[in-house]
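User: Structure please.
Assistant: Input sequence and predicted structure:
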Amino acid sequence: MTADLFAGYDRRFRRALDTAPERRPWVDDERMSILAAARRCLGLDPQLVPSLEVRTGQVGETAGEAWTTEHLQATSWPGVWCAADLYLPQVNGPAPAVILACGHADGAKRAPAYRALAGLLARQGVAVLVSDNLGQGERAAMGHQEVPGVFACDLSLQGLIVMETMAWLRWLRADPRIDRARIGLVGNSGGGLLSLLAGALCRDDLAVVSSSGFPSRFTFVARKEKQLCHCTLLPGIVGELEMWQLYGSIAPTPLLLFQGRDDHFFPEDLFWETARRTFTAFDRAGAAGRFAAEVLPGGHGWDARRRRLLARFVCAHLGVLWQETVTDPPQPPLPACLPAWPRAALTTEQLARRLSGCDREAADLADVFPSDVPSEPVPLLRGDPRLIAAQYEAFLRDGLAVSLR
């Protein structure tokens, strides 16, 4: 019986793709339609984007050889606490900057690969902002991996993360130490998804974008037969948009896509297909020379070679003259931005209820996106079939959970 139900999903996914609207990102009104569809799938309301209140002096800073790292406490929405590191290079005048979007690397903003890239860029004279996403790093108490109540409120976890990233971008643009005309956005894996979405939605405020460890198809991600992190779930995106359309919407802002040849999450052939379609969009937009795609040896994460590729691309498009330097300079230990988690801090699901005015709770994702699939074990399926089917229902949904209230 369960096998028949999953075969039914095969047919539904095919139908969704067969009826997907044609949207060309190089045509202005169709690009606007792409962005509107992305906002719908994210549950993103521009009026809900928060205004950050940053407390720069609460923790202090750590001095390095060529830069200083400020440890930031902030609130985004009322009751929502943030933690971030700002790497400030020793330069005269406003510095170019990069927002480094975190993925699921251990340590979140303090992951060794992130710190190494931030140090490499800071040595070139580029400021780097690295913040913990909702429910990650110092904010783990908020909840991230499974937050079904967010979807019950007509929102999405990724939508909340994108809105907070927009707030950090606004904050950077208002900082007199930063050159607001030269700000970039980069990310790998889950950060690659974030840089894809925020890059497309904030294109006009960005000077360069890079997305790695994620370029593929939303359909490929949606059809994975395992339980996904809830930040990956984009309700209704299948049959609505594909990644290349959003990547293409970043044109003419320079864009670098790359991944490891041995990345076990995303096949190389799918990367190249997405890169080809994205190049076509850039070419039609008259920006072919501003797009680059690379596959390098290695796995899913950023190694030294990929960090160097990324840093050189970023510097080239921020107008920074590249100087050869130590790839991974030693870095001192850093103090916590939030020495103690605030008692009154909201969880991710509480935030969703407050923003939406919805008081509906959900025990799990299947409460929000129900199906006929039971929880009985299925051989070779990686996770609870009921929850995997709920993911399928989410990706195929026409809109979010409003019909279930």
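The chain has one domain: 2-404.
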